[in-house]
Structures are given as C-alpha cells and as structure tokens.
Design a protein that fits this description.
Blueprint lengths: L8 E2 L2 E6 L4 E5 L1 H10 L27 H20 L5 H8 L7 H4 L1
Antiparallel strand pairs: 1-2, 2-3
Length: about 110
Amino acid sequence: MKDLGPLAFFLGIRVLRDRATRKLWLCQDSYIEKIATQFNVARKEAFRGNPLPTNELQPNPLQATADQIQWYQSSTGSVNYPAVITRPDIAKGASRLAEFLLNPSPHHQK
C-alpha cells in the first residue's frame, strides 16, 4: 500500500473537504461539463428550482426516429448518473424524462 496524500478524486468524483468545519462535498463538475459538451448544451448561470416545465409532459403523438431515440436515451442516461450519485436535486426531473425513452418528442429533448 502507498500513501498518496489527501483524497482529491475518487472514481471521477472530486472530493472537497473543510476539516475545520468537518464538511465534505462530492462534485462531478468535470463529468457534467463533459456531457454538456458532448450533447451541445450551453452553459447557463446557476439555476434554482425545477428545470422541467410546469405543465405536464405529454407522450409524443408522432413516432420519433431511431436517431432521435438514441440521442435522447444517451442524454437522459448521462444525466441519470450524477442524479443518482451526487445530485439528488435533479433526480425527479431525470426520472420524469426517463418515462419517455421509447418515443421522445422535441419538447422532451428541449
């Protein structure tokens, strides 16, 4: 075994510690930046509240193409990972969007 010093990263998760106040933060900011770049999502200022629209999401009346379905499934799955690990605040939105994995509409993708 080898001592590598204080823990900074673990499985791609950045670990921040404030020993004086005995607080610990787990950050996946590098992963979130990577998926934002991969799916061409513009970075916006800090968002407070639920990013889902207030009206109920409806099933797609048309059939989505295979490419649209694959893109939606990839992006929703990529968002689900930080929702489960370090971002419980987005878990409800990720779960709600996952209901439309088989036939997403452009409204769901937005």
